[in-house]
Amino acid sequence: MIKLISLASVLLLASSNLRAQLNVYYVDVGQGDAIYIELPNHHNVLIDGGPSGEPIAKFLKEKGVTTIDHVLLTHPHSDHYRGLKKVFTAFDVKNYYDTKAENRDAQGDNNLRDLAAAEPGCKTHYPEPGETLNWDSRVTVKVLNSCYEPVITHNNDETNACSLVIRLFYNGTGLLFMGDADAAVENAMTRIFKSGLQSYGLKVGHHGSRYSSTDAFLARVQPKVAVISVGVDNVYGHPHKEAIDRIRATGAKIFYTTSGTQTLFIPAPKKGVEPVLQGPVPYDPGAAAQPQAVRDVVYTPEVQAPVSVNSQALDQLTQQAADQN
Fold first, then answer.
1. CATH number, domain containing residue 256
2. What CA–CA distance (Å, rounded) separates 40 from 22?
C-alpha cells in the first residue's frame, strides 16, 4: 500500500511538472508579429495577431484554443493588429492589453478597441512601465515600456516607440518581447532597468531593423536565443544586416519565422534543465545556403530615422521610472 502511494505521488509530481512547463510559439504570420504563450497555470496569452486573420486563427484552432485569457497589442500598426480582429470574432477573450497610442488617420486600431469593448466579460487594461501583470503566480510578467497616456501621431517611429514591451521570468529564465521598439526605447530601458533586462530569449525588436538591437542594449540582455518575426522578401528589407551582425556578435542563436513557427519551452523547475528552442534550422553563417530573408542583398532603406529624444513615448517611460524611484 505504501509503495502504491509512493508511485502515485511520483506520477502526480511528474504530471504536475509537465503541466508547469511554459511554452512560447513565435508564429509564422509573414511580415508581422504574433506570439502565443501557454502559461504553467493553463492560462494563455497572445501578443499581437499578425497582418491578417487567417494564419493566427488557423494556428490557434489547430491547437484547440477556444478562449484566450490575455490578448496584448504592442502598438497600432496593421502588421500587429489586423489578425487580432479575427481573434476577437472567433475566440473568447478575457483580458485585452493596449497602449493609448493613437495612429492618426488610421481606423483599424480603433475598430479593435471597439471589438474588445463589445466582447462579453472582457476587461481592457492600459499597463504602465514598471507594472507587474498578474498572469500566473509562478511567472513574473513586468511591463518595461508603454504609452499609458494618449499619444496621437502619424509618425511611424513615435508609434513604434509606444510599443508595449514585456519581460517574462520563469524558472530562472527571462524572455523579452520588444514589439517594434527601436534604439531610442532600448537606450532608455537600458538606463532605467539595467540588469533587469537580462533574458535567455529575445524577440528581436522591429523585425530586425537596423535601428534596433544596439550593442549597449544587447550587452544588457545577453540573449542566448534571438527570434526574428519577419516575412520573406518584404518591402522593408527586414531583417537588416547591421542588426543581424550585432546579434550574432553576442553568440546568440538566431531563429527566423521565415522558416516556420518557432517554439521555446521552459520546463518546470528542476535542477540542470535548460530551456529548449524547437523549430526549423537556425541561421548558420557557415552554411552554403542561407535563409532567403538574410542573404547579403541590397537592403531597402527605411523611410524615417529613429525617433528623436523629444518623444512623448520616451517622456512617459522616463517619467514613470522617476515616479517609481
1. 3.60.15.10
2. 5
